[in-house]
Amino acid sequence: MARYIAAIDQGTTSSRCIIFDPSGQIISVDQEEHRQYYPKPGWVEHDALEIWQRTREVVAGALAKADLSVSDIAAIGVTNQRETTVIWDRHTGQPYCPAIVWQDTRTDGICNAFAQEGGQDRFRAQTGLPLATYFSGPKIKWMLDEVHGLRQAAERGDALFGNMDTWVIWNLTGGENGGVHITDVSNASRTQLMNLEKLDWDDDILRVMDVPRQMLPKIVSSSQVYGDAVGMLAGVPVAGDLGDQQAALFGQTCYRPGEAKNTYGTGCFMLLNTGEKPVTSKSGLLTTVGYKIGDQPAVYCLEGSIAIAGALVQWLRDNIKLIEKSVDVETLAKSVEDSGGIYFVPAFSGLYAPYWRSDARGAIVGMTRYIERGHIARAALEATAYQTREVLDAMEQDSGVKLTSLKVDGGMVHNELLMTFQANILNVPVIRPKVSETTALGAAYAAGLAVGFWRDFSELRANWGVDKTWSPSMDEAERGRLYAGWKKAVTRTFDWIE
After folding, report:
1. What is the pLDDT of residues 142-200, one digit of tens each?
2. Taking Cα atoms as reference points, which of 232, 297, 142, 173 lies closest to residue 289?
3. To 5 degrees, how large is the angle CA 332–CA 335–CA 337?
4. CA angle, 465 as apex, 463 and 466 as ends, to 5°?
5. Cα three-residue angle 12-16-18, rounded to 5 degrees
6. What's the CA gap between 277 and 289, in Å, rounded?
7. For burial by CB atoms within 10 Å, which of 108, 170, 307, 470 has the most?
8. Runs of H (alpha helix) within 371-453
9. What is the separation, in whole angstroms, between the first and last Cα of the chain?
């Protein structure tokens, strides 16, 4: 009898397979990193074939670690790094070029050209998104324009586009031998090509961006049976698909309007459930689809997207060798009392919410001879907390809802220094759940609902429990002084790229 649900979590730096039991507890997990390619300043690429290979390895690894067979798995859910764009040949399964990662800024010129008519919000009414290098649509256009022969292949129907969910599910269900070419509403809403109200590709935007409709996947709900897996999971229904941040919202059981979560991963992403009607942001946030369960109406969110969070710790580790392992950042940061008056604004890919400034670049400001390694490590952690505060302020302005607590998840929530500072700078309690792998859990929940493994939301809510709460203890004057310094530091990063 099938006793478990498997989730494939295809992230920016690694792929994981996590197997959950009916109470939402982790039975086993396997994880493999994949290479990051930086061929030019501002360019970030992945090898989609390497990612698919790592995906197969982690599925095998998770099954082996728990001594499970395919008959133990009731369904598979998939969650993924969003906006990362791959186009491949439907007959061979070979990508036409490297995948362009969500952080990549090469489409800046394309976005600026589109903004000549209608400005940065030209497509916001239809898609909920400003024109930005972040989204898939401009990336598709770049590939079609720059990769020799690709546009002709797309027009013939030979080239298929997908974000990583589509790529993984297509391969899982047979690839060139009948693989299912789909994406769910949450991922489709990140392409800048889907109409939020109609939940279908927008023909006017496709025409403007010059993207052939036949290369796009079919848009489906986040929880339904899409097809059966082949290979080592042969016969298991593939039944859940959610972009990683929406999956974390779902795994955190934020099912009521006004409930919010923040995920601390490579980037940092706060989502607020706004119910069954899209809410247009006036404060620099994104309007996005949260999830759609079967035939039920879609649920929408406001989202604040921060490009660089955990990626800044990786930069300290890999680029300037300040630390040996990512976990060492907390020890180093604790070696000093405070950040010594410096601020680290990690605008490596420009600034996302609430600014949307592709002309910004990273800066450390306030440097004196007093500053040492510990101050830089501490300022790097504090940067994530400050950016989260900016997003929270924008969310409260747009929604009119005053947040009373923040549910958090992702790799950085085990950093005590960061979570303590986060509660202090927000002035609300920060709550970590018992299962902090909520991205994978959300994908598992979506798949389990589709096959009847779980009955309803109340059963999922019963699984959620508090692991730790951080309460604010900073006085208001100090909070205001520190935050004012951050806002001043952010302005120093503007207008760097002409």
Report:
1. 999 999 999 999 999 999 999 999 999 999 999 999 999 999 999 999 999 999 999 99
2. 297
3. 125
4. 165
5. 140
6. 10
7. 170
8. 373-399, 416-426, 438-450
9. 61
Helix 476-491 with 416-426: angle, nearest 10 deg? 100
Residue 401: predicted pLDDT? 77
Residues paired with 9 in a beta bridge: 16, 79
Partner residues linked to 264 by β-bridges: 268
Burial, 473: exposed, middle or buried (Cβ in 10 Å; 0-12, 13-18, 19+)? exposed
3-state secondary structure of 367: coil
**The tokens of 404 are what?**
């009373």
The helix (run of H) or strand (run of E) holding residue 176 is: none
pLDDT in tens, 57-103: 999 999 999 999 999 999 999 999 999 999 999 999 999 999 999 99
Residue 1 in this model has a pLDDT that exceeds 70: no
Residue 407, both tokens:
């549910």
Give Cβ neighbours of residue 431 (< 8 Å, ≥ 6 apart): 405, 406, 407, 408, 466, 468, 469
Confidence label for 298 from pLDDT (cuts 50, 70 and 90): very high
Query: Which residues, in sequence order, are CB contacts of 92 under 8 Å at separation 6+?
Result: 176
Measure Cα distances from 86 to 46, 201, 229 in Å: 9, 18, 21
Cα–Cα separations (whole angstroms), residue 2 to 180, 235, 321, 449, 455: 23, 12, 46, 14, 16
Q: Is the peptide bond before 278 cis (omega within 30 degrees of 0)?
A: no
CA angle 254, 259, 265 (to 5 degrees): 70
Whether 21 shows a pLDDT value over 90: the answer reads yes
Residue with structure tokens 């060492």? 328
Which residues are within 8 A (CB) of 488 and not within 5 positions of it... i.e. 6 or more apart?
Answer: none
How far apart CA 31 and CA 8 sit, in angstroms, is: 10
What the block records as the tokens of 242 is 């959610």
Give the bridge partners for 7, in sequence order: 18, 77
d(CA 336, CA 333): 6
User: Could you give the maximum distance between any two Cα atoms of the chain, in Å?
Assistant: 65
Checking if the pLDDT of 321 tops 90, the result is yes
Could you give the CA distance from residue 249 to residue 318 in angstroms, rounded to a whole number? 30
Our CA angle for 161, 167, 168, nearest 5°, is: 165
φ, ψ (nearest 5 deg) of residue 6:
-105, 140
Pairing outcome for strands 343-345 and 268-275: unpaired
Determine contact, residues 430/422, Cβ cutoff 8 Å: yes
Q: How many residues does the chain have?
A: 498
% of the chain at pLDDT higher than 70: 100
Place of tokens 């004196």: 368
Q: And the tokens for 84?
A: 């990362």
Two tokens at 4?
A: 């478990």
Q: Which of 309, 253, 271 is nearest to 465 (CA)?
A: 253
From start to end of 145-210, where are the E strands? Answer: 159-162, 182-184, 194-195, 200-201
